[in-house]
Amino acid sequence: MGRGEAGTKKHISLETWDSKLAGVKVPKEDMNRLIMNFLVTEGYVEAARTFEKESGTPPGVNLDAITDRMEVRRALQGGDVDTAIERVNDLDPEILESQPQLYFHLQQQRLIELIRGGSVESALDFAQECLAPLAEENAEFLEELERTVALLAFEDSKASPVGDLMDVAQRQKTASELNAAILASQAQEREPRLPLLLKMLLWAQAQLDERASYPRVNDLATAALVPPTKGE
């Protein structure tokens, strides 16, 4: 029988699993640094200040600079692309100058906001004058531009096959891309470590599923251990 087939898995009880987990000691300082990393990267300035006072964990960065970064993100999430671009250029004009894909996505978001506001003529002019030149020599940009302009072909653009571009999630996607670029320009991590650790947990469980039946974490929000089903 091959690995992972019925009857070959090792069974690990909840009691045994709990006992092994209890033997793993994670320094409190490491946990505090993980929390601070999340707060700083995601831009929770006041929470970071409070956590620094309560835990004595230094943020490792100037928290005032985080405030500037969050103003850029909030502007973009609110659909104010012009203000976001203006403020990111105030922070570091090289960010957009050195990243054509990011610059295109910001201009694409500008076009989406014009379409959202019902400015059809302005949207067409902007697409032709500002986005078409960027897409001429880049097939990926051209495809994205065509998808965005296609919104104009539908009376209800949100219900169209490309309606996802009108979702708040599209603003969030662009804001996250810009946020990561600002972090990189400041020699900071582009993503918090905590979500990466959670992804590693899910990957590790998927690998272990082939070899054993064991208490799993199915709900990351509660991190509750689910005992293995008998007979697994």
TrEMBL record:
Residues 65-122 form the CTLH domain. Pfam families: CTLH (PF10607), LisH (PF08513). It comes from the Eukaryota. PROSITE patterns: CTLH, LISH. This is CTLH domain-containing protein. It comes from Gonium pectorale.
